[in-house]
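Lecture 7 notes. Example A: sequence first, then its structure tokens.
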Amino acid sequence: MPLALGLLLFAALVRNAQIANAACREALEMCFRLLIPSLFPFFVLSGFLNRVGLPGLLGRVLAPFAFRLFGVSGAGASALPIGLTGGYPAGAAYIADMEKSGSVSRQEAERLLAFCNNSGPAFIVGAVGVGVFGSVRLGLLLYGIHILSAILTGLFFRGKHPCPEIQDEQLDAADPALALVGAVKQATSSILSVCGFAVFFSVLLRLLDTGGVISALCTFLASRFGFDPRFVRAMLTGIFELGSGAAAMQGLSPCPESLALAAFLLGWGGISVQFQTLAVLAESKITGALHPAGRLMSAGFGAVLAYVVGLGLF
């Protein structure tokens, strides 16, 4: 089956080379305009802070309530603010760094990954709030819903046994120069993987659209369930790639349904984010088995909360 799909994709790529080239150029432009400026500094900063002892410092501060809330160590709980400010997949990269350095165990890292790898405020407020709905207020509302959804997901994946806190000998800060060199090298590798998957899925979506697959699915689902075809297109593209889904949402009128769709797509992140996450986990022992379930749960919480709030707004 994978071989057949690969051959079909190869044939479609050869047959629609110009379309694929255009999609690739547009995706690369998006990487240079959006992904690299928003993610690369966070990758470097989170890697640097991890190396100079941030998990240990926050571990002591957060330890008293980290286990009560999420069943994780204080060091592990530090991944949540990183993930909620850095955007996909900065949270995953930070967790992978902690696992490799011994700040958290592999088992704890798996649970952290279920709720600490999230979309960031720059994308939610800028690309969705302003870009889709033309409203900073709605963007901030979606960001608040996104945070609450992550917390609720964390409560669901709460551990039942105490996680060991980082030992004193692990709290010694590394040499800042070496820490920065290591952080930049790792961030460069991570951002290349992220952009690579973003480009691939953008080209794949364009080929599926050119072949009529997405249009056929949109027509079927819209007629079957009575949805707006633009709503269905945004949902289908967003399931694959978040940026494309946000672009497809432009033109939808603000209503409870469109707000719920935006929250769902932001919580899920797209199949592209799943692969981006696996790429940044490659050098760690983390399998990422709980990540898809965590993202789906966060997406579900977000959609319900956004719909309920939307009923009171529109």
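Example B, a different protein, same format:
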Amino acid sequence: MSFIKTLQETVERVDGAVASVIIGSDGIAVEGYSLEPAINAEQLGAELSALIREMTGTSNSLGLGIAGELSIAYEKYVLIVRRITDEYYITLVIKPQGNPGKGRFVLKNAVSKIEKEF
């Protein structure tokens, strides 16, 4: 199944959003949509997989339960990573002047739409 429509809608619904990618916990990008050529879905997936593993390990070590979301604010972008299943995650990339609060809400709705496909 192609998830491109959901990824595109996710980006279009959030002010300042520039990309959305579905990645596996192994770092392989399942599908991505980007308005900026500098954001490479494959590279993003590979780099985020290390953070996802760290997030999972930390939540397990501290007995916090399953981590559902991770947000990271960098100088150029804000990344929001949301769990679809134990093996798959969806990421939204937003410019700093964008709206990460709405991004979190839109990602939650996107997961509801696509989780049955996983």
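Note on Example B: The longest helix spans residues 41-62. The beta strands are 17-24, 29-34, 69-73, 78-83, 88-94.
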